[in-house]
Amino acid sequence: MDVHASLQAPCEPAALFAFVDDLARYPDWVDLVHRAEADDDGDGGDGGRPAWAVELRARLGPLARSKRLRMERTVHDTERHVAVFERVERDGRHHSPWVLRAEVVGDGEGSALHMHLHYGGALWTGGLMERALTDQITAGRERLSALVSA
């Protein structure tokens, strides 16, 4: 499953990038991200990369799904305003890939955020889950816009 989303914001790229380059800020504007806390494994992740323990939650009517992931920031280019987060678990088992890429560019009237989420597993796929994710993205876009405009 691949999901793309964009947002126009009336602010400098660095101000918008500050909301997307740290997963701990995502619960403020994305309901799907129930919790995101710095991983406390003591070494900052593989190769010293920052990592987060992330809990995702989605509700579809009476049904709820929850997923816990360990995500590492594998790219952090503050000059080009690009951040990439990838699932890197430490339990020695095979896990479906999750990759989130966020890029912020100046657009003349502020900045534009382009996000791409790739999920390579089966648990979160299907029409209902994709619809719920789309609804979450729409609501999150509005909240993020309000946060960067404040």
Structure description:
The protein is an alpha+beta fold and 150 residues long. It has one domain: 2-Layer Sandwich (Alpha-D-Glucose-1,6-Bisphosphate, Chain A, domain 4), CATH 3.30.530. 21% of the residues lie in helices and 42% in strands. It is built from two helices and seven strands, in the order E-H-E-E-E-E-E-E-H. The chain has helices spanning 13-20, 127-149, and strands at residues 2-9, 33-38, 51-60, 63-77, 82-87, 98-106, 111-119. A seven-stranded antiparallel sheet has the order 1-7-6-5-4-3-2, with helices on one face. Strand 3 and strand 4 form a beta hairpin. The radius of gyration is 15 Å and the shape is globular. The N and C termini lie far apart (33 Å). The model has no long low-confidence stretch (mean pLDDT 87).
Contiguous helical run count: 2
Return the CATH architecture.
2-Layer Sandwich
Poorly predicted runs are none
Q: Globular, elongated, flat, extended or rod-shaped: what is the shape?
A: globular
Could you spell the SSE succession in H and E letters? EHEEEEEEH
Instruction: Please summarize the sheet with the most strands.
Output: 7 strands, antiparallel
Offer a few descriptive terms:
single chain, globular, 150 residues, 7 strands, alpha+beta
